[in-house]
Specification:
Helix content is 18%, strand content 33%. It is of the alpha/beta class. The structure holds FE2/S2 (inorganic) cluster. Residues 218-221, 223-228, 238-240 line the site of FE2/S2 (inorganic) cluster.
């Protein structure tokens, strides 16, 4: 675990309730991170007391020494981050956890996100496009104004916004038949419906086909508190240190 002070390069307001905070990550060695890993960010001045706990924030993008986080100012810690300006320093731990595993042979990648759970998937989409994958991204947004902006994505990515969860799942059968790999950032309650849809579209779910980003509380972020326990075929595991990315065949207790 590495504690760092990263300087804010830019704070861009993407939507009324969504910011992209860019940090100077020149000290991060190339290859020292994987999409799906996260930073544990202190969201206050060091001498202040609230909010006490760090926030676990998926690495949204990392490119050429610049690391982006998606900030949602309707949350106490994120509200503090949304007020940061260029030159401010952030106290972060990480990158932490286990990220997505993108196979070396390119194919068709389907990304599925619930709302702004999209945060950990965009870096994976970038990496996949760079390695020759065809990428489709399905994400929900109850209003067009709440959707992740298409302009932030590579034009090579086919991006579809679905107004409801039902509409999202309606889109998936054809996409699941097309896909060689699925990465999903949806709440654990939706892992079983995802698994059932994969089995309906492809008869079986094989290891390596679908990976999920565990959207669970990552309180300590370092495997100490147990708040992020996930039941798996290997027993109980910590989402913060054994995940937050798990193979869908690996998670049980759905
Ligand atoms: S967040 Fe504390 S053990 Fe994972």
């Amino acid at each position: 675990m590495k504690q760092r002070r990263l300087l804010v390069l830019d704070n861009q307001r993407l939507r009324p309730a969504l910011h992209s905070l860019s940090l100077n990550a020149a000290e991060l060695e190339p290859g020292a991170w994987a999409p799906g890993q996260f930073l544990h960010v202190l969201c206050r001045e060091p001498e202040a007391h609230s909010p006490f706990l760090r926030r676990a924030m998926p690495i949204h993008r990392l490119d050429a020494g610049r690391l982006d986080l998606l900030v949602r100012p309707d949350e106490l810690g994120h509200a503090w981050l949304a007020r940061r300006r260029a030159g401010d320093a952030l106290d972060v731990l990480g990158p932490l956890g286990r990220g997505f595993d993108l196979p070396g042979t390119p194919g068709h990648l389907l990304l599925v996100a619930r709302g702004l759970g999209i945060a950990p998937l965009v870096g994976l989409a970038d990496q996949a496009v760079a390695h020759g994958w065809a990428v489709t991204l399905l994400a929900t947004a109850t209003r067009p104004a709440d959707a992740y902006p298409a302009a932030q994505l590579s034009p090579a990515i086919e991006y579809q916004v679905c107004p409801t969860d039902a509409a999202l799942w309606d889109c998936t059968p054809a996409a699941l038949a097309w896909a060689d790999m699925v990465a999903a950032a949806v709440p654990p309650a939706e892992w079983l419906p995802l698994r059932q849809r994969i089995e309906a579209a492809r008869l079986t779910l094989v290891s390596g086909f679908a990976q999920v980003w565990a959207d669970v509380p990552l309180a300590c972020g370092v495997g100490r508190c147990g708040a992020c326990a996930i039941e798996t075929t290997r027993g109980w595991r910590h989402a913060c240190s054994d995940g937050p990315v798990f193979d869908l065949t690996e998670v049980t207790g759905l």
